[in-house]
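Researcher: Let's try something more involved. This one mixes different molecule types, so please make sure each is placed in the same coordinate frame as the others.
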Amino acid sequence: MDKHVLLVEDEVNIIEAMSFLLKREGWRVDTHSDGATAVSAIRDARPDLVVLDYMLPGKSGIAILTELRALPDFATLPVLMLTARGQSRDREEAERAGVNRFMTKPFSNTEVLNAVRDLVRG
Amino acid sequence: MTATLNLLVGVSLIYVAFLFAVAFAAERAAVRGRSGWLRTPLVYTLSLSIYCTAWTFYGAVGYAARSGMEYVTIYLGPSLVMIGWWWVLRKLVRIGRSQRVTSVADLISARYGKSNTLAIVVTIMAVVGVTPYIALQLQSVTLALSIFSGPADVDGNAGLNMQSAGFWVAAGLALFTVLFGTRNLNANERHDGVVIAIAVEAVVKLVALIAVGVFVVWGIAGGIGPMMAQIDASDLGTWQVDRSRWAALTVLSAAAFLCLPRMFQVLVVENDDERHVQIASWAFPVYLMLMSLFVVPIAVVGLDLLPAGSNPDLFVVSVPLAQGQTGLAVLSFLGGFSSATSMVIVATLALSTMVSNHVVMPIYLSVKPGGASKSGDVRNVILRARRLSILLIIALGYLYYVLSGGSGALAAIGLISFAGVAQFLPAMLGGIFWRGATRVGALSGLCLGFAIWVYASLLPSFGQGAVLPASFFEVGPWGIGWLRPYAFFGIEGMDPTVHAVFWSLLLNTSVFVVGSLLSFPKPLERLQGAQFVNVFDHSGQARGWHASVAASEDLMIMAQRILGAAEAQALFRAAALEQGMTGHLPEPNPAFLERLERELSASVGTATAHAMVSQMVGAASVSVEDLLAVADESAQMLEYSSQLEAKSTELSRTAGQLREANDKLTQLSVQKDAFLGQISHELRTPMTSIRAFSEILRDAEGLSVAEKTKYASIIHVEAIRLTRLLDDLLDLSVMENGQVSLNSATGRLEAVLDHALITTQASGDGRLRIVRHKTAADTALTTDMDRLGQVFINLITNAQKYCRAEAPQLEISVRAEPHTLAVEFRDNGTPIPDAARALIFEKFARAAEVEGSGAGLGLAICREIMARLGGDISHVPQASGNLFVVKLPREAALAAQ
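Model: All components are placed in one shared frame. Result:
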């Protein structure tokens, strides 16, 4: 069975690019663009991996991650967070909230796919 | 007889030395604070006996010998005052104390608004009025001396050179007074030594008179029965009573008792305790009664015993002398000497206080401005002024004695003085009982009364033709009959004394009342008037001036509060030590209170210090002046505190502004961080897409043409987005640096709007419904059309991006006014919160709730543009939705060309 990834991102073009890359790696890709409903979407979808944007309409990526980690079933779910803000404080904040991997945009396709593979294997 | 004279001089000198010793001891005791025995009701009563001068001692007998029982009026007046009017005295004493009055001149001046003119007038009147009285004392002492020196020779000259004797007596009295009264300057004008000395003298004169009386009744007449028979047989027994003279003299002596400067000195200034007045109110009449008891017997026996033509004024001495009772005669002489000296001392002391305080000091201070700041200097000046005044006053007395020939009957001279000082009565009583009395009334009454007295009583006393030409008395000055000194208004046949007293007091009082009714008091007069008339309402319980030890403790507590514990304790301990007391609480005598007041005033101001100490000691009330000064100080404090308050308001306002600025800076800093994040996000997001798709295009195999085209066009769009962002940033930066170039052109606002709508329609997602309210008005204007269009585009784009209503809508309307045009953009989205509204036009700012593309530069750019175009852009709070209003002048004075 294919691995299932939930892509939480609001930029259409980035969704397009990430979906293309992950599908080519054999992932089943679902997307969700609204921050406010992201937690329930993750709970419903029960993905193997979440790729989470830092800056979302409705609720920030950090808030979503914090809520998710508070749920027993999702305490260890691998989460890759992507940010375009590029401030070191954001990374520290994300790590405290329990992120597995934190990457700053823009990144190379190889880089992001390696990170995804690491997360799922580990 | 010369041996007797020498004996007499010797005895007198010893007596004076004794008085000095008593006075000195008393002052020592007072300084040490052991003055309790000095200030008793008995001493107070005895000190009042200076009313009984040599005139009373010698003159009463003479008076009785000449005019029968009339002499009683001289005792009757004061007795009536003491018994019936003791409450008037009490009021005077209370006022005197509460106002710190130092003399009768001070009292009248203080009552009428602290008028110095009034003080000077009263002083001059008192000096002139009392001068005959001092002359009378000189005359009596020299007369008594002449009795001892032997009978008159064939030429009628006394064996003693009367003038030179008078001079030496005057010199002696002057020296005595200077030494007694002005040894040091006493701030409250109280003289413990003098008071005790005159009390001793009071005893001596009473004892002397009674001794002579007892000798006359039992030693000569042979007991009370024969004495009474002898009196009945004499002329005195059948003497007719002149009612008008009796009434006038009683009134006169009562008035004099209250008004004489020396009486005021002992009654009011030297008073130590108000309650003493009550005791003296019966004790003093008893003293007077004892003094008058043997007057008639001595007069009757003297008239019978001595050869016709003997001076009846000297019976008190000459009767014992004629009987060979030299010892008794010497005692009697000492009694008379006591009467004379005590009167002269106190009278000149009181007068010199008035002269130096009201005449010399004002002149000195006006001549030497700044002199008052050197207190040591001034004290010396005051002392010198006092001494000089004493010499001057006694010299005047001596002059009067010489000029009047030393021949007048003692009683007549005394009455002249009485009538002179009685002129103070209307102003004095009116002042303490009638609030309507004014300075103008008092001054005119006093001056008129005094003038009448001088004209009708004083000048005629030198003899008809001596000062006033004899024609004055016969036909009046310049033939004006109704101005004759003894017959005013043509009313003849009045006794000269009654005449002078009647007219002077009547006109004085009338003018005083009328003048007061017609004039308007100054504020200080009004306040002082209220304070004087209602003194009992203001000054609390009657009690001794010396505070009790309990008050000492209160004072200590208060002083500690103000000066601090250590300093206050040191002050009190030092004072106690100086008073010769053990422990740390001194007796709160006036000297100490004054010192404490001085110490306190350094901290709280003079007036406040005085008020505080007065309140503690309880006796002295707070005077109007004090209250005014306190009010002054309070006003200063209030002003000071309001200044402080203003400063603190200013400070807190500044602090508020700083806090506001800080808040704004903090907010801006947060906004700046957010902006940097946003800018980073805005730059990195398109770059991420560009990088990802360019790598896909490069690396991925088997992409369809459609896919390749799609990915390439994404790269293209994102590249454009990046460019626009960079353009905006550049635009803003340029405009902020004022380097913008504007191209002014004339056109129609509607056209600019149309263009903006077309431009935004192409980029938007088409959800936003735009409602255009066209206006028929002329919308012509001259401005930079491109920049204005940019503002409109920004506003429309914002509505497209951020209006999240169910059916987003934007209404655009134009209001055309003569000189301005206003464009309103009203959307139906979520209103921008109050907190954010202040910041939306700042660059980097974005309404926090609103997410999405845009770096928060749009409105900042709009604001910059509108400022350049001479207009403005504002956000108007709405119940729902947002309203942006763009205003601009039709003829833009473009800010930077």
